[in-house]
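Researcher: Batch entry, complex prediction.
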Amino acid sequence: MNRSLRIVTLFMASAIVMAACSSGGATTAPSAAAGESAAASTVASEAPASAAAGGGSITVTSLWGGSEQEAFQKVLDGFKTATGITATYQAQRTDYATVLQSKITGGNPPDVAIMPGLGFLRQFARSGGIKKVSDLGIDPASLEANYPPGILDTGKVDGDLYGIMVKFNSKSTVWYRPDVFTKDSVSIPKTWDEFKAALDKLQAAGEKTPLGLGAKDSWTLTDWFEEVYLRSAGADAYKKLFSPDGDWTDPSVSAAIKSMQEVLNDKYVVGGIKGALGTTFTDGIAEAFSASPKAAVYFEGGFVGGIATGQTNTALKPGETIDWFDFPTFASGAGTGAAEIGGDEIAALTTNPGVKEFIQYMTTADAGTIWAGTGAIISPVKAVAASTYPTDLAKKEAAQVAGATAVVYDGSDTLPAASPDMGAMLQNAIQGQDLAGLLSTFNDGVKAAWAGEK
Amino acid sequence: MTATPSLIGSKAPAPKVPRGALTERTRLVVVAIFLLPAAILLAVFMVYPVLYTIRLSFDRGLGGNFTRIVGLDNYSSLFKDPTFIQAIVNNLLWIVFYTGFVIGLGLVIAVVAMRVRYETIIKAIVFLPMAIAATALAVIWEFVYQPGADIGLLNAILGIFHGPAPSWLGDSGLVNAALIAVGVWGSVGFATVILSAALKGIPTEVLEAARTDGANEFQIFYRIIVPMVSLPISVLAVTLTVNVIKLFDIPYVMTHGGPGTASRVIAFQMYIQGFQSGQFGQAAAVAVVMLIIMIPIMAFNIRRFRTSSVV
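Model: Structure tokens for the complex:
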């Protein structure tokens, strides 16, 4: 064997050793989490040292960055002015629950966490990671008057209040191009049949693919399903479906998915279903609201307005080139007037000094007004005046939820974290896979996940 | 992991140290001292995590903690899960097509490049994607594959020829092929460089003798070149297969396993079970399955090294 071949062999030997090492790394997910907790604890231990000069300090963690983080920082500044306590924000943008869990396990949790999704809240409440609101010395009953009915219920786990909703967005908003609707003399559809007729009319008027869809991000499909289900089966059936008693093999579920498919199909959707499955949420917004739009309608929550006008196309004019209407109602009339929201809950992880004050501050109109004034969020606090919202789109959104006959919480965020992926199931469904089979498998998985939470 | 120590170890019995200078016992102590640092590192970073993972795979493992022993439940639910089966099938697709194309193209490029003057330039160009981080590679190709021709380079090119404009990442039937192509693009340079060096090692006398005997170039390729680089090829195949079994980044960045569950692979399934669902017991079971798949491949590889000192 000659020399260069030997060198090659040696090189490849080392390559394989490295491959083996990294495969070892891949098999040890838990130890990676432990490493992150070590990193996290150094961050946490730095924060108080830098802020010790003021009247105490606490750390608050959530998953916002960019403009959302800047908006929240204004609230923290307001808290500092009101109480003299410094609240330091720690962003945790990915693997939120896992990192938070490892911080708790490592004995160095942040003082306060703002969590997306009720599945996480339940998980942490049951594992003892977060404190009851009453443990902080705050009487939950005293907060009831600050909120519309039902809002505080979202933060209850097994009857005790753990989390308080601090911000939300409506998910019952269908975004559209008023200019295109006017040009094609299409009026705003109120019912599902009118909605389908409007799509037909847009198509006849030359909008080849009137409906934008960014289904590569599968949560856009969970929101579609939730809206259709809420409007067709009603708020009570909706709440039941996303509870441990939910039955995903119920005919109402497959009926709702079939209704979705009446509009989410190759006829109306930009690029067809396959194209939509290769399109992200933000690219879907661009389909309807970019400078050269391909669609006239895009359904997603209230946050579309900020992204469309702030990032996609700054030339958009609310009311002229971008606006939204209520998600259409169904013939059953069961869910007419109801609104679905997705929101974040604040919860305490420690009882350190300042935590009680911060939680209390977040329930006040002051905090809500500062935050709502940035246009980033809708505040659930009743005393936040409608005039606080900087844009008409946000004012309308706040009014929609305030005037709703029933408010339900984002269903996919309510399911246990261990549930099978609802978005992936719906991606399979709109591709035309066997619906009964998909729902039956999904039902088994969700049931097992609910049982596993106990 | 034992490959390196055994290589070194095999040279050890021919020392120049005078015999009898060390007693058998002190020699053992010396050996132990020299092995200790490596042994500690191995124990901390390999043995302990593997044992921890195996133990976790028999536990419910909520949030990564040992919460309740569930026996083989994690494993049985794994193999009842159609998504996991699909992930295994996808990994098999990767093993066959990714490994096959990387080695095939690598060999062809290496052989062809050897015959031209600007060999180094060609090899440098083919090797360049190796320098791109897999995540960046995936992001780049995500743009290339965009369905709309205004961003999607591939569909823009197809548009010039009035071809169809498929949704590469949104079509369940295309997505795996599209992802494997990205993997091949990123790895073919590695194979080219390795095989090119191996080709240089073939004695010219052999090739000349074959030509004198009247062999044509295709016969030389199949009867002489390929057999003479069979060791590097087999080692490459093992390396690439190991890479595929722990493949995660490309599907994670480009499709997140979608559409639906069409492009999920085993390692991605582990990530979902652990970090998205918080079921670390299930995730550990996936990891153990990966480990079990990996063992015979590594064993084959190590044996190959030991027996192939004479080619």
